[in-house]
Write a structure and sequence with these properties.
Keywords: ATP-binding, DNA-binding, Homeobox, Kinase, Nucleotide-binding, Serine/threonine-protein kinase, Transferase. The protein is an alpha+beta fold. The protein has two domains: 79 residues, Phosphorylase Kinase, domain 1; 184 residues, Transferase(Phosphotransferase), domain 1 (Orthogonal Bundle). 31% of the residues lie in helices and 22% in strands. The strands form four sheets. It has a six-stranded antiparallel beta sheet, covered by helices on one side. A two-stranded antiparallel sheet has the order 7-10. It is elongated, with a radius of gyration of 21 Å.
């Protein structure tokens, strides 16, 4: 592929696409994340507006492999972002996606109001279709949150959305007991406790997203995993005894009376987690 560029750094993909890159012209940058950058571009040949995501090779190869696994799905019917192609440049992978509007976190922030129940229902229904499609090919997204649900074109198609960012997606068979997944604010109890994992973890995250959209705030505004478990117990009650007995991480959050080991579990009063969630990343759509 012929590439014309002005400059780039070898260690980080922080060059700016202010030139023609393999037949693309820059419109403007969309966001920056831990793994790369995203730019809104126009194909010189087709005049089509697309999003180019440049990522580190090891991250990009994993995401491309997962996106290729989803090729069999109809992206419009399944409400999943369309992945067109990828190419390599300067040791990094560039992924081409269809251009969408804004993500739901940006939307709520922009309009400074929670969504109405009917609006939330429309979005959740579309995401249920998306999760059903992923389940049909045995894929777990593991990163369902407002940032990764994007409006297609809110002016022309109000509240029509698609699921994006498959950089952290896994095959269901690869979801091992005790493995850590999901952002803390959207993390399912089975992940926190270290129980068997499957597609259901995405359903929990979607429920948290629905609550955020309707309330305008997080359902579990926890600073760490211990507070996350405590908040869940306060809202839903203790998990079943058989679940707590099986959890790899149960003893990090719960304890039994030493004098009565057969008694029920109760939550630890002392938090062992380092306080504070990581600062919210500054990024745009498509970028994690």
């Amino acid at each position: 592929m012929g590439l014309q560029r002005r400059k780039h750094r070898e260690r980080e993909p922080n060059y700016k696409l202010i030139y023609t890159l393999n037949g693309y012209s820059l419109v403007n940058p969309l966001g920056t994340g831990a793994f790369g950058k995203v730019h809104k571009c126009v194909s010189v040949e087709t005049k089509q507006t697309v999003a180019l995501k440049s990522v580190k090779r090891w991250t990009g190869e994993k995401e491309v492999a997962m996106l290729e696994k989803l090729r069999t799905l109809d992206k419009d019917t399944a409400n999943l972002i369309k992945f067109n192609r990828h190419f390599e440049f300067a040791g990094f992978l560039t992924l081409e996606f269809e251009m969408l509007d804004m993500d739901l976190h940006q939307f709520v922030k922009c309009f400074s109001r929670p969504l109405q129940l009917c609006e939330v229902q429309v979005i959740v229904q579309q995401m249920l279709v998306a999760l059903s499609a992923l389940k049909s090919v045995r894929v777990v997204h593991t990163d369902i949150k407002p940032d990764n649900i994007m409006l297609i074109n809110h002016e022309q198609l109000p509240f029509k959305v698609k699921l994006i960012d498959f950089g952290l997606a896994h095959s269901t068979s690869d979801m091992s007991i005790g493995s850590k997944h999901q952002a803390t604010l959207y993390r399912a109890p089975e992940v926190l406790l270290g129980l068997p994992l499957h597609e259901g973890v995405d359903m929990w995250s979607l429920g948290c997203v629905a609550a955020f959209l309707y309330l305008g705030k997080h359902l579990y505004p926890s600073r760490c995993e211990h507070e996350r478990v405590r908040d869940t117990v306060q809202l839903h009650g203790l998990p079943g005894e058989h679940l707590l007995n099986s959890g790899v991480y149960t003893k990090q959050y719960f304890k039994k009376d030493e004098e009565f080991p057969s008694s029920s579990w109760r939550i630890n009063e002392t938090c062992r987690c380092p306080k504070g969630l990581p600062k919210r990343r500054t990024h745009g759509p498509y970028q994690r």
